[in-house]
């Protein structure tokens, strides 16, 4: 999964977290190529889950800080719902990690990062700079 410029946010912490999640997704793919499913499961539980949950919550905090709800209430509501669904999906995978096909997990992560960041996160990215909260 290559890093692309669309993953860069105007807030440094968000960008670092996106980078970490792309790195961890690539690590899972690498471990799967090496037939190390148990190691891939450990990466998901010990690294991806806490980073992803913290990231999703911080992103909503940033949106609230820039008062994005007032700027675009419809997108804010959809974004919060998407985060709740993502967090629920992460929890469900974690609860059944030993029975889960890790290639599906890697695909889930890649789909989330590629689609959510490029499409949904870009909606509020420009507002971050306007309000000067580029440092996390």
Number of helices: 5
**Main sheet makeup:** none
Shape call:
elongated
CATH class: Mainly Alpha
CATH superfamily grouping? Hemerythrin-like
Ranges with pLDDT <50 over ≥5 residues?
none
Mean pLDDT, as a whole number? 90
Structural class of the secondary elements? Answer: mainly alpha
What is the annotated CATH architecture? Answer: Up-down Bundle
- By oligomeric state, this entry counts as single chain
Strand residue percentage: under 5%
What characteristics describe this protein?
136 residues; mainly alpha; Four Helix Bundle (Hemerythrin (Met), subunit A); 5 helices
Please specify the SSE layout and strand pairing.
Elements: H1 12-33, H2 37-65, H3 68-71, H4 73-95, H5 102-130
Helix pairs in contact: 1-2, 1-5, 2-4, 4-5
